[in-house]
Amino acid sequence: MSGVVGIKSNGNISQQLFYSLSSIQHRGQDAAGIILSDGKDLNRIRGMGLVNEVFANEDLIDTKAEIGIGHVRSAPEGANKDYNVEPLVSFAKNNEFSIAHDGNLVNYYSLKRKEEDIGMAFHTHTDSELILLLITRYYEGDIVKAIRKAMEDIRGAYSCVLCMPDKIVGFRDYYGMRPLTLGWDENTTIIASENCAVEILDIDNYRDIEAGEIVVVDKDGITSYKTDKEIKAKHCIFEHVYTARPDANIEDVNAYMFRRRCGEKLYEQAPVDADLVCPVPDSGTPSAIGFAQRSGIPFAAGLVKNRYMGRTFIKSTQKEREIAVRLKLNPQKSVIEGKRIVLVDDSIVRGTTSAKLIKRIREAGAKEVHFRVTSPPFVNPCYYGVDTPHKDNLIASKLSTEEIRKQIGADTLEFLTLENLTSLTKKPKDYCLACFTGDYPIEPVEIEEI
Ligand code: AMP
Ligand code: SF4
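A: This is the predicted complex of the input protein with iron/sulfur cluster.
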């Protein structure tokens, strides 16, 4: 998973990039980088870590620029290396190009092999490098044509911002899988993964960049190039469920309201008699509020979150993941003791978080623990940019709901049905649901391990 930002502004670009990137930090915590253009050359600052760690020693306020792009990255297992940190830069045909990409190409390996067969060497382990290579190869003075041509070769999910010394360009794949937003006011134009990166700059006007759309921002303003292709949108439903910030408005759906409605639906679908509704913070909080409001069962913060821990999910060994859950979430005995608890979270992936939490909630004195999940069982890996384990490690791919219930130690367990989940979107048919259904909109035939 990643977050991207591109800005053209009369203001202080480096500072604006810093603020916008910080606001989409949830999309990637392993590395961050920015590219700044003074109108002639591109300059890059990047490194491993959080945005405020990478730029801690950089005097961004004094770095003059007219445009720039930025990236936050969460690396898949084994790929957390400094040479993969974006934005990537390339020099070709007397020009400088840079790219930041969110998503994942499913034909990366076969395209890469083709290039290697003709002698190309790569400097990173990222599909973003391949996108940049194709664009620079096809560039003959018209960046839109070059991107369109590259889009004919690449398959998969990509929401990108590209930077040349005098322009930024945003483009989104033909399925619109990962989000991409365009925001503007009289001084600033911004392209970003989520609207929080726009709003942090005090900009109120924004819209989704459409599937297959290319947007160029340069001295002539904002120019949009829509595609002639027939679009079959397949937006990632998991953005609404988990990935995006609660204040994200993507495809006309507000993530907070969506999650709250998921909680309401879940109560309607699987009511339960209990004393308290507790979220797994933060991802389960809006849904637990919805569940509590709909059921009339009081909401309570039964788990205390350590805000300084990163995402537990991303740790590489099972032991590390288990310790990380302990470090991150601690049951509040004074709230839980003697109570029948409804515990609400957005998903069960490996089953580590839920099993550990339920055990500790019981140790803290809960009489009953009823687990409610605001998405269907996660049975298939994602090949489009959401970091998920191999199918063998997805608990729901091997166990039935009843078997999972036993394994995680819940008194009852219920997953929100697919019908209930999709009913909360504006256009249910326009969504990728592959991790729940196995119905991959783009066949992931060429996926290999890094
Ligand atoms: P697990 O412990 O593997 O069952 O993971 C479930 C927990 O991880 C839930 O609390 C989710 O909020 C969170 N989660 C789900 N998907 C992801 C993801 N792709 N990256 C990071 N965290 C996730
Ligand atoms: Fe999103 Fe799941 Fe589709 Fe991946 S497979 S894009 S996580 S809905």
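The chain has a mean pLDDT of 94. The domain at 2-233 is CATH 3.60.20.10 (Glutamine Phosphoribosylpyrophosphate, subunit 1, domain 1).
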